[in-house]
């Protein structure tokens, strides 16, 4: 299995509002940048979309270290929130429907294909690839 590093980020101008997402995929000497935007969205949706788009771009099952400054996304996997959501019929701990369910379901399908370790990084700090993702995500926000 190829070992890939992925950095992701989402951005939103207003929340909700126009938003952008970005990912940087690293494999050996290869660097691939992805980004996109939506007219009306939220920051959390853009964080999830970045991870979905990055994992979906992989052509074969991979061993992935996915770095994100989104506590929302990283905590979901590190603390197994998704296991509880599925067991509870996609209801959260308060009995309400999980927000962004369709994106979470896409992401879970991709984590079944790839071996993914989600790692939290500090946003807007000195991490080269997280900063690059932020630049790309902000640039992808529709004007």
TrEMBL record:
Its cofactor is Mg(2+). It is found in: Cytoplasm. Its EC number is 3.1.26.4. The keyword Cytoplasm applies. Mg(2+) 1 binds at residues 9, 47, 69. It catalyses: Endonucleolytic cleavage to 5'-phosphomonoester. GO terms for molecular function: RNA-DNA hybrid ribonuclease activity. Residues 1-142 form the RNase H type-1 domain. Mg(2+) 2 binds at residues 9, 134. The keyword ATP-binding does not apply. Binds 1 Mg(2+) ion per subunit. May bind a second metal ion at a regulatory site, or after substrate binding. Keywords: Cytoplasm, Endonuclease, Hydrolase, Magnesium, Metal-binding, Nuclease. It is an enzyme of class 3 (hydrolase). Belongs to the RNase H family. NCBIfam families: PRK00203.1. Monomer. PANTHER family: RIBONUCLEASE H1. Endonuclease that specifically degrades the RNA of RNA-DNA hybrids. This is Ribonuclease H. The gene is rnhA.
């Amino acid at each position: 299995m190829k070992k890939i590093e992925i950095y992701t980020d989402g951005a939103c101008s207003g929340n909700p509002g126009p938003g952008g997402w970005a990912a940087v995929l690293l494999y050996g000497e290869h660097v691939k940048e992805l980004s996109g935007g939506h007219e009306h969205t939220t920051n959390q949706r853009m964080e999830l979309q970045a991870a979905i788009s990055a994992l979906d771009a992989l052509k074969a099952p991979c061993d992935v270290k996915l770095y994100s400054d989104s506590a929302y996304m990283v905590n979901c996997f590190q603390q197994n929130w998704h296991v509880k959501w599925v067991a509870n019929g996609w209801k959260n701990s308060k009995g309400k429907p999980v927000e962004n369910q369709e994106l979470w379901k896409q992401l879970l399908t991709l984590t079944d294909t790839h071996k993914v370790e989600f790692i939290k990084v500090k946003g807007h700090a000195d991490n080269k690839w997280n900063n690059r993702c932020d630049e790309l995500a902000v640039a992808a926000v529709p004007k």
